[in-house]
Design a protein that fits this description.
With about 160 residues, the chain is an alpha+beta fold. The chain is built from six helices and four strands. A hairpin with a 2-residue loop joins β2 and β3. α1 packs antiparallel against α2 and α5 runs parallel beside α6.
Length: about 160
């Protein structure tokens, strides 16, 4: 499983690669739930972060026709050399204060709370894991899939 997805991790710094590994460990749920569309784990990674070459216009990531779910837009010359991070939200690009991939993900996660945004269905497991395990928010009160509970138990024990 991870060998097929190894190219997704290549090029990113170790912090981003670790976050993207969570998408593989807690993959998108199967389709069929309330009209959910099945997407691959590789596609789900694109729902977390998109790389944008710094020499191109940012307009393709902003405007009224852009998707509603939030994601990190990493702008740089290569995935290892990111100069700026943005949170793409409702067609707007909000510059991140932090300059690392970890701080950009922190801002992305917190944007869900500040703006009252539901987690992307495909990433619900990953975000719930981060919420309960890393941020220690609503542990025992959030609906966790058995996979999320199992991964947290393995890490904490």
């Amino acid at each position: 499983m991870l060998k097929a997805g190894a190219s997704v991790f290549s090029g990113w710094d170790s912090d981003m690669a670790s976050l993207l590994l969570l998408v593989y460990l807690l993959p998108p749920p199967p389709s069929g739930k309330k009209g959910a569309v099945k997407i691959s784990t590789r596609e789900a990674v694109d729902h977390v972060v998109k790389f944008h070459k710094s020499c191109r216009s940012l307009q393709e990531h902003s405007g009224p026709n852009q998707r509603r779910q939030t994601y990190i837009l990493a702008v740089g010359t290569t995935r290892k050399h990111i100069h700026e991070f943005y949170i793409a939200l409702d067609g707007d690009l909000l510059p991140c204060k932090g300059k690392s991939s970890l701080s950009a993900f922190d801002e992305l996660f917190k944007a869900h709370y500040v703006f009252g945004i539901s987690y992307d269905q495909a990433l619900n497991g990953m975000y719930t894991f981060v919420q309960t395990t890393i941020y220690n928010i609503d542990v025992g009160h959030s609906h966790e899939t058995p996979r999320v509970k199992d991964l947290r138990a393995k890490l904490l024990n």
